[in-house]
Every structure is written in C-alpha cells, then in structure tokens.
Design brief:
The structure is a homodimer. By secondary structure, chain A is mainly alpha-helical. In chain A, 53% of the residues lie in helices and 9% in strands. In chain A, helix 6 packs antiparallel against helix 7. Chain B binds a DNA duplex through helix 3, helix 4 and strand 2.
DNA sequence: TATATTACTTGCACAACGCAAGTAATCTGT
DNA sequence: ACAGATTACTTGCGTTGTGCAAGTAATATA
C-alpha cells in the first residue's frame, strides 16, 4: 500500500494522491455542494471529461477517500460519498479556499473570505455535521454560496 | 491574469496553479527545509527531473509565489525565496501534512503529528518568523524533522 | 416496447512528463 | 592563466496522461 512512495514525507504522500487538477475538486463537490452522482460532477462547471472523471473517482475510491453505493430506488445511480478519511480533507480545502480568495480570486469578496477565515472552526464543524447527518444541501454562509 | 479560468471558485483557481505533484513540494522545501537553489531542490529526495523543476520554478515565479535573486558572492547561484503570497501557503501545507500523517504516513509518529496539530498556530507563527528573518535552518519540532 | 437516463469505456490526437545528454556562465585550484 | 568543476538550466526523444467525441450496457420511464 505505501510501497513505491517517492518519499516518506506526508506532504509528498498526500500530493501523490491528491496532486492533480481534479481530485480535490471532486472532494469539494461532495463536501460543499452536496453532489453525489457521476452526472452531478460532470455538470459542476469546470468541464471535466467523462474518462478523466471516471479515472479520478476510481483513484479516490482506491485511496479510501470516497465510497460508492447503489441507490436503492434507482439501480442505475451510484451515490458517491466521502469516507472519514475524505471528510478529514476539509481543512485542506478550506485553506485552499482562503488562499485562493485572498490572492487569486476576484469572485469572493474580501469581506466574505475574511469572515470564513475568522470562523474557521465553526465552518469546519458545520461541514462535519453535514457529513455525519448526510445533509446534501449546498453549503451557504450567510445565505451566499461560499465558492462564488 | 485571471482570464481563461475554468471557474470562479477559489479552490479551482488555487488548484489550477498548484494542482500537480511538484509545485507544493518546492514550496515545502523553501518553507520548511530552508532550500534555496536549483541544486537543493534536485537533491530533495523525491527525484524531480531538471526540466520539470525548471518549468515549475518558472510557473511559481509567474504566479508570484516565489522570486529569484542572484547571490552576491557567487554569480552562478540563483537564490529562490517565497513571496508573501508564497508564505501564505503555510496553512495549506500544514493541513496536507496533518492529513498525510494521520491517514497515509507511517513515517510520522502519531504523537508528533498530534502535537503539530495541537500547536497549529505556534507552528505557523514559527514558519512566518523564519520567513521574515530569512532563517534558513531546516525546521525542527522538539529536535526532530517534522517531515520524517 | 421505444426512448431516455446513468455511468461509464474506447479510440485517437495532442500535450505533459521523465530520463539522458548537452550547454553556457561562472568559480576554484594550481 | 588555464583546466576542470559547479550551477542552472535546455534539448531530444520515448512514454504516459489528458481532452474530446463517440459508443455501450444496464436500468428506468412513457
């Protein structure tokens, strides 16, 4: 499992699993936007190709970050869900959000990203509650989407 | 500058810049290990190729995350250094470290990663102090390398 | 029973990566 | 002063990964 690692550094190990343009976006969609299905991810706006999405889902599953279960009422639908290991990525995503909002994004007003930053623990607690209770409504902060 | 973005989400934007297997490792080496030169990065253990390293350094410079200055006493040597934008990635790296140590790494003893987690703010303050004061000694926690 | 939906897979062109080798500028030892 | 070493790259080339379009199998709906 942890053979063929390029190094023992946990940052390096994390990046071997998550270091690409798409994996963490899938985690974001599961965590924040309440997405569950293949089709949801396809339509998430960044325009991932079907083959790339399939390969990333496969990788995330192999790494134990997500799992999939067939929907009881519709055998066609696979519902993806974060594992504990997956939801533990919440702080990583939050810090990426804060960094991007501060240094790169014109889309998130400074006031909103500063509020998220200030209420870091509250935000994480809410993300974890949603996961525990399978709350799949898109996450908002003060009535606004946090990613726009 | 922020044209041709696949979406307005700051997480997506961050990943377009940093979402690969190498960029954040270079930032780690600058931030934690006190590396400065091309040669330092080459020998950092993960085995990055020279052309890839050159292209990543170029990208990080273009993104304003690092800057390079020629060493006064040796004109051959380029010293790379994190900018403010670069040092602001410290929380992202820290969370990747914590996640990797908890879920992937056998190299970091649980006790040590828990201590880092508990002293999150102290750790970040120390990283920022080192940057301000140009302290390039490899960062240790209680006399141990934090990445092993 | 025909059509739609979901979650993929396959084929192909193109870009990125990884390794080995080479190069230009600068420094060091004699 | 000159040979050899050092630093920071670039170039070539074969392999791997990505992105798009099209196709497919299983299941659901009208």
């Amino acid at each position: 499992m942890n053979s063929n690692r390029r190094s023992a550094c946990p940052v390096s190990t994390s990046l071997e699993i998550l270091g690409d343009r798409w994996s963490l976006l899938i985690v974001r969609d599961l965590m924040i936007r309440g997405f569950r299905t293949f089709k949801d991810f396809l339509e998430s706006g960044e325009g991932i190709a079907t083959n790339i999405l399939a390969s990333r889902l496969k990788g995330l599953k192999a790494s134990g970050i997500i799992k999939a279960e067939i929907e009881a009422t519709d055998q066609r639908r696979l519902n993806y869900r974060l594992t504990k290991k997956g939801i533990d990525l919440a702080p990583v995503l939050l810090e990426l959000l804060i960094w991007g909002a501060r240094h790169e994004s014109s889309a998130v007003p400074c006031a909103r990203s500063r509020r998220i930053e200030k209420n870091r623990e509250k935000f994480l607690a809410e993300v974890r509650r949603r996961w525990r209770e399978r709350d799949a409504t898109p996450l908002q902060v003060k009535g606004r989407w946090i990613w726009k």
